[in-house]
């Protein structure tokens, strides 16, 4: 259980923060940048939920919870020493990736194949889902960069890769199953 009775601690005033294992690192470290960007994705999902209803809102709520799981995973280095931890660290699981894939496939069945790139926009929900997509792509790039420096859970990387695809397909669904997608017209303003 998490108990937060004091929000500021002053322990980060010199530009350092604590990871999940207690190690202190610079706030600009690759690991903090990666999980901080995952937090940004979560905030964009919160904005999208203002426009979502029913099943889409339920799916976005699951994704928000997954993103906290992902942040918990990324803030805890030293995966090889997890077996010695007092409490097993929370790690992303392949089942979370599988769920995203199943949801993408289910949504994609209702969409016509693309014949053009899509501009971010259309309905308010679709526009917000495109924002979620682009921020999740940035989170993925930063997590891949982190994985070149330190160990990162493979399921965490896969989840981020599938997540941006999920947002893309969901944005098309939010645009009247793709009928209201805003299509790119190459060179239209020359």
Structure commentary:
This protein has 190 residues and is mainly alpha-helical. It has one domain: Cobalamin adenosyltransferase-like (Hypothetical Protein Ta1238, Chain: A), CATH 1.20.1200.10. It contains five helices and four strands; from the N terminus they run E-E-H-H-H-E-H-H-E. It has helices at residues 30-49, 54-74, 94-108, 124-149, 154-174; strands spanning 16-18, 24-26, 118-119, 182-183. The strands form two sheets. It has a two-stranded antiparallel ribbon with strand order 1-2. Strands 3-4 form a two-stranded antiparallel sheet. A hairpin with a 5-residue loop joins strand 1 (16-18) and strand 2 (24-26). The protein is elongated. The model has no long low-confidence stretch (mean pLDDT 92). Residues 90-152 form a coiled coil. Keywords: ATP-binding, Cobalamin biosynthesis, Coiled coil, Cytoplasm, Nucleotide-binding, Transferase. Residues 7-173 form the Cobalamin adenosyltransferase-like domain. InterPro entries: CblAdoTrfase-like, CblAdoTrfase-like_sf, PduO-typ.
Main sheet, how many strands, which sense, barrel? Answer: 2 strands, antiparallel
Mean of pLDDT: 92
Number of strands: 4
* Shape field: elongated
Question: How many separate structural domains?
Answer: 1
Helicity, as a percent range: 40-55%
Distance between the termini: 58 Å
Going across the biggest sheet, name each strand in turn. Answer: 1-2
* Percent in strands: 5-15%
What series of H and E elements makes up the topology? EEHHHEHHE
Query: Can you identify the CATH superfamily?
Result: Cobalamin adenosyltransferase-like
Low-pLDDT sequence parts: none
Count of separate DSSP helical elements: 5
The third-level CATH topology is: Hypothetical Protein Ta1238, Chain: A
Secondary-structure content class: mainly alpha
Q: What is the CATH domain class?
A: Mainly Alpha
CATH architecture label: Up-down Bundle
Task: Compute the CA-based radius of gyration.
Answer: 19 Å
């Amino acid at each position: 259980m998490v108990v937060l009775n004091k929000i500021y601690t002053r322990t980060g005033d010199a530009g350092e923060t604590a990871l999940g294992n207690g190690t202190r690192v610079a706030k600009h470290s690759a690991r903090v940048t990666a999980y901080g960007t995952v937090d940004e994705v979560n905030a964009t999902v919160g904005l999208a939920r203002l426009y979502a209803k029913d099943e889409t809102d339920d799916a976005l709520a699951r994704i928000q919870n997954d993103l906290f799981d992902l942040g918990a995973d990324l803030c805890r280095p030293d995966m090889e020493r997890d077996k010695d931890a007092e409490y097993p660290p929370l790690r992303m699981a392949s089942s979370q990736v599988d769920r995203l894939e199943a949801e993408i496939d289910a949504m994609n069945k209702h969409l016509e194949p693309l014949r053009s790139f899509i501009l971010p926009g259309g309905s308010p929900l679709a526009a917000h889902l495109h924002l979620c997509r682009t921020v999740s792509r940035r989170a993925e790039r930063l997590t891949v960069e982190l994985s070149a420096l330190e160990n990162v859970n493979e399921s965490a990387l896969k989840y981020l890769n599938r997540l941006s695809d999920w947002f893309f397909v969901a944005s098309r669904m939010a645009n009247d199953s793709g009928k209201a997608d805003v299509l790119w017209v190459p060179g239209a303003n020359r």
